[in-house]
Fold this sequence. Notes:
alpha/beta, Rossmann fold, 2 domains, 5-stranded mixed beta sheet, 14 strands, 41% helix, PFOR_II, Pyrv_Fd/Flavodoxin_OxRdtase_N
Amino acid sequence: MARTFMKGSEAVAEAAVRAGCRFFAGYPITPQNEVPEYFSRRLPEVGGTFIQGESEVASINMVYGAASAGVRAMTSSSSPGIALKSEGISYCASARIPIVYTNFARGGPGVGSIQPAQMDYFEATKAAGNGGFQMMVLAPSTVQEAVDLTVKAFELADRDRNPVHILADGVIATMMEPVELPEMMSEEKVAEIRESKKKWACVGHELDYANRSWIQPGQWQTTVMQKCNEEAAALYESWKKNDVMVEEYMVEDAEIIITAYGISGRIAKSSVDILRKQGIKVGLIRPITLNPFPTEAFEKLDYSKVKAILDVEMSIPAQYATDVEAVVRRRCPVEKCLCSGGNVMSREAVLEAVMKIAGQEA
């Protein structure tokens, strides 16, 4: 298809529509306001429904309801707004309801700043809500990747009957890049997907614990709840075998490995190119799935050659580094190059950090 020039937030919304999303509920918050604005214009054109909820809490529960009826449904927000949606997301996970949501993250904690940040890694991968549930977490580094991962997120959500989280940031939301959009899903295909969910969707049949599609808080028998938890745990384990996505760039002979995700990963990759021209053997490991984590990419490194791993992230204190350190297991030092609070990672900071590890002047 022809490429078009789009802002990241709008490109994600258009990709969702083309992937068959026919319901969106959300609430305004910077820097993702263009997402609901775009949906408000676009969804009526395809027979879909847009609702601006009175709050984030209302919005996520509207998405819960629409997805429970078999509709491909989505919401989006930014950091503190996502925190408010956490209970509803947890309900969707417990009820095994396939939803997609995007966090265009900003600085924090609390209301924080409206500028981009990567301070929601723990929230996304460790504690998106109560009860220990997990989701696949996808982290785009370009607008094109955000488009592609949005389409994939709906496929994964339906496959697993589980929420899928796209963790982006304010840079991806507000930057404009040329993108190639997917083909528009036919209405026949949209109807076919919805029809395929009738076995479990809330479409008038009696409650069936084996194929439940809603949750009654406090009403589950403990044996039923444990069985559901066991099934979920098996699902999460399957992701580690089948669904890891990671970019490994120039790692074969690398003596220093930079690791970063999202926009920091993009900045780090350009730094690798510059450093290679200077004769410094640097490589990049960029997770595309934050959960499941790309453990194998770190395990197969030759630690007799790797002097250090440099964690690059827009979070102070570091969060992503915790998982990196757990996988590396002290086989080499894990150094950090950090910024936070709405400051965007600079290439100069990455170059300086690598030069310091290499024992050279920046």
